[in-house]
Amino acid sequence: MLPLLLVALGAAGALLLVGSVSAWWWCAAGPLLALTALGGRDLAQRRRSVLRNYPLIGRPPFLVHERARGAEAEEPFGTGRDVYVDGHEFLEPSMRPVEVPDEPPVVRVGGPDCTQPYDMALLNVSAMSFGALSPNAVLALNRGAALGRFAHDTGEGGLSDHHLRGGGDLIWEIGTGYFGCRTSEGDFEAREFADKAALPEVKCVSLKLSQGAGPGTGGVLPGAKVNAEIARARGVPEGRAVVSPPYHRVFSTPRELVRFVARMRELAGGKPTGFKLCVGSRRQFLAVCKAMLAEGVTPDFIVVDGSEGGTGAAPAEFAGGLGTPLTEGLITVHNALVGTGLRERVRIGASGGIATGSDIVRRLLQGADYTNAARAMMLAVGCVRARRCHTNTCPAGVATQDPLRVRALDVADKSERVRRYHRATVHSACRIMAAMGVRDPGELTPHRLLRRVGPTTVRSYAELYEWLPSGVLLAEPPATWSADWAAADPDSF
After folding, report:
1. Which of 17, 97, 260, 486 qualifies as a FRET site for 77, CA 20 to 30 Å off?
2. Residue 182 carries which DSSP code?
3. Helix 190-197 vs helix 254-267: crossing angle, to nearest 10
4. Stated pTM of the model
């Protein structure tokens, strides 16, 4: 792993021996000694994981993450964007801006059947499992969440010691493999789920139906990553690839899904309970809404994952080619809940490509109450986008279980970077809202987000998309929704 440094060190040593005979050899030894010193410095520093793993050779492509470093993200000399190209979007400022709040707003998550509501930050760590991420990366994200007072979604890989050691608030995600609450046959184990859901670090529980990067297929953890610790945490054989089933065993209809969400909330002692999905058929989601109405049960939250979301390993033709992008998925879920009169009972989270303050504001305008970020948090913790997540050879120690690579990721430094990134990004969202004259996210409306649709034409989201009045699907569905509403069956997907 250190070939260049060792070569430089050996060559410098040899030249030093020769230099005792001829002073001319110092001309060659000097640069090699300098490289050796620089490589030693790379090994000793803790801020850049790639340089600890690859001294000297990791320097040229190193990516600087301004916000994670605490540097101001300013743009001199004007924007580099073409603001006249079709598709360019921009937010509407106010002639009467307001003061930026001292503390960022939070979102109370917890419907009428929830007894332990949770105040969610505007931006949180999206679902990434231990196994996909290294133990140090998980711990750094969790400590960063604790420092910044935001939530950390565990991903479907179960609860691990690395999630629990950092002191951060957890959203425990349960996928089709039921890792962490699984029988030996792969079924849901209620008692184990209840015991772990009762942990004080667990603030919410989430049922994963699908994810944006691979909707309709189960997650994959390559066998090279399944070490003894991960195998114990998940209840699977060591060294073998873990492929989650594409569907849940515990339900097969919308009504059974809603009932299982209610059961999860009961087992979790009344903590906020919801589900995550990448939206597909609008009719199927309306069938879930009909099941909610029929059963009198609603989730406390729904996380909408866009098809632009990422993952460590998914079929190549799934990513970006299957599932609804976040904008349309988010608006669909928001409209369906509004149209059925259920929106006030359910909070909506949005995930998929969120990285900046303007991303947060745009998603709130489109119907979300809060947002989650995965790739941006990975960058904050040291990811250099080497695209080796599935190979166990991540050079930054983020997406690997190789102990030599993992040790390069310094938890203390990276958790502080995560905190700084989160703080700066949420503050940016608050500054943008203040510039728009908005004191509370609830004041954001679709007409404040505009898109260029032609050389001389700009339309707001209020004009571009249909926005349903509350309860309209129960009274008189509009023609654009009537066929899907009529076909939606609470007893069949």
Report:
1. 97
2. B
3. 50
4. 0.86
* In contact, 135 and 399? CB cutoff 8 Å: no
The tokens for 468 are 């349903």
Neighbouring CB atoms inside 10 A of 45's CB total 14
> In the chain, what are the helix, strand and coil shares in percent, each to the nearest 5?
40, 15, 45
Instruction: Look up residue 123 and give its two tokens.
Output: 């931006």
E strand map for 273-376:
273-277, 301-305, 347-351, 370-373
The dihedral over CA atoms of 230, 232, 233, 236, expressed in degrees to the nearest 10, equals 80
Distance of CA 42 to the CA centre of its chain: 30
Q: In the numeric block, which tokens belong to residue 440?
A: 């509370």
List of the chain residues with pLDDT < 70: 1-40, 42-62, 64-65, 72-77, 213, 310-316, 319-320
Sort residue 251 into left (φ over 0), alpha (ψ -120 to 50) or beta: beta
- Cβ pair 170, 197 in contact under 8 A: no
Report the pLDDT value the prediction gives residue 38, as an integer from 0 to 100: 62
- Tokens 């250190």 locate to 2
Closest CA to 458 of 93, 95, 84: 84
Return the pLDDT at 61.
39
pLDDT digits (tens, 9 = 90+) for 413-461: 999 999 999 999 999 999 999 999 999 999 999 999 999 999 999 999 9
Which one-letter amino acid corresponds to residue 265?
R
Question: What 3-state class would DSSP assign to 188?
Answer: strand
* Pair 346, 298: CB distance under 8 Å: yes
Angle between helices 3-19 and 26-44 (to 10 degrees): 140
Q: Mapping DSSP to helix (H, G, I), strand (E, B) and coil, where does residue 303 land?
A: strand
Cα–Cα distance between 107 and 114 in angstroms, integer?
Answer: 15
CA distances from 101 to 50, 148, 281, 438, 440 (A): 38, 16, 40, 10, 9
Sole residue written with tokens 């050691």: 165
- Decide: helix, strand or coil at residue 274: strand
